[in-house]
Amino acid sequence: MSFKLPKEKVLISFSGGRTSGFMLYKIIEANNGLNSNVKVTFANTGREMPETLDFVQQCSEKWNVHIDWLEFDYKAVNNYRHKYTFREVSHNSASRDGKPFIDIIKAKKTLPDALQRFCTVELKIRTITRFLKSLGWQSWINTIGIRADESHRAKESRQKEFVNWFPLVDNKVTKQDILDFWKKQSFDLKITPGFGNCDGCFLKSEKTISVLWKMYPDRAKWWSDLEKLRHGHNKRKRQFHKARTYEQIGQFVEQQGDWIFDNEDALCQANDGECTI
């Protein structure tokens, strides 16, 4: 495998998962550390599981690599305009109550959904971009941890500042390679499958959201409460999924009991949470 860094400035975008952790380790190993042209960032949305935050910190400490922890921030210019910016945080000060996510909803005056994924764009992509530009970076290589067995997700960048690099695709790394790697390490991501990144992300299946209601009802309720708020100038209610609200999924779980978790037809298992048949 070859994980040699290019000569240009390089961003390693660390999501906080096993795959991007594997990628980070391999790049550090192949280059005998990271030089000053490389930045490793973790963009916290405030809805990551505590185990994810701990895992990011462990990677930093175990591998002796500096990781810049970032969060979206904004300042009101007037009633209609906001200035988007970022704040640097740490493992100890990182939001755990969803503040960055709530802030972008306040600024946009609406909820994101599968068609308007401004949460990903603003909380991650543009927050990291603003940070790098504050350091004087004008262009760079954006390193993303997408595996060879999910290469359909590897897309060219739509941003003018950077081009994307997918070293795991180039090196034909699969999910099994990732699992084998972490079995040999002294630490691992201790998280329930499906709850990586934002715990109740609307791109996750109804089945995953149902498991969230069962195992972490307070975290599921946070998403449900957002849907009950009125957004925008006309104070409309919105929901993340067209089919069911988070509250309706929670009620279904309560009414039907555990059998739904073993019945493949009881809940939609599509990645975007909405069945197409």
Please name the defining characteristics of this protein.
277 residues, alpha/beta, Rossmann fold, 2 domains, 6-stranded mixed sheet, two-stranded antiparallel sheet, 8 strands, 14% strand, globular, disordered C terminus
Q: Kindly give the count of domains.
A: 2
How much of the sequence is in beta strands? 5-15%
Specify the overall morphology: globular
Tally the beta strands.
8
Looking at how many chains there are and whether they match, the oligomeric state comes to single chain
Structural class: alpha/beta
Order of helices and strands: EHEHEEHHEEHHHHEEH
Tally of DSSP helical segments: 9
As for the CATH topology of the largest domain, it is Rossmann fold
Poorly predicted spans:
273-277
- Termini, distance in Å? 41 Å
Q: Just give the CATH class of the largest domain.
A: Alpha Beta
Name the helicity range: 25-40%
The CATH level-2 architecture of the largest domain is identified as 3-Layer(aba) Sandwich
Largest sheet: 6 strands, mixed
Characterization of this structure:
This protein is α/β, with parallel strands linked by helices and 277 residues long. The protein has two domains: 10-183, HUPs (Rossmann fold); 206-261, no CATH class. The protein contains nine helices and eight strands. The chain has helices at residues 18-30, 50-62, 99-108, 118-134, 167-170, 175-183, 206-215, 217-228, 246-256; strands at residues 10-13, 38-43, 68-76, 82-89, 140-143, 162-165, 230-231, 236-237. A six-stranded mixed β-sheet has the order 4-3-2-1-5-6. The chain has a two-stranded antiparallel ribbon with strand order 7-8. Strand 2 (38-43), helix 2 and strand 3 form a beta-alpha-beta unit. Helix 3 (99-108) packs across helix 4 and helix 7 (206-215) crosses helix 8 (217-228). The longest helix is centred in the middle third of the chain and has 17 residues, at 118-134. The radius of gyration is 19 Å and the shape is globular. Mean pLDDT is 90; it is low at 273-277.
